[in-house]
Fold:
Amino acid sequence: MPVYEFQCKCGHITEELVRMDTKTVECPKCHGKAKKILSACSFELKGGGWYADGYASSKKK
Ligand SMILES: [Zn+2]
Structure:
């Protein structure tokens, strides 16, 4: 399973191993909802959607 970053409105960013269709996780700091954000280093917009795994593994530097 891929690691996604989630950012809460309190500003806290957490990384979680979650299923692809998971959109929010509970913020460990304030127990609010942290939303999934795109990590710039592992994701490129190439007609994308959520098929980033192939790109990420083939374009590792
Ligand atoms: Zn929070």
Observations:
- The two ends are 21 Å apart (CA to CA).
- The chain has one domain: 3-58.
- Residues 34 and 48 are 23 Å apart (CA to CA).
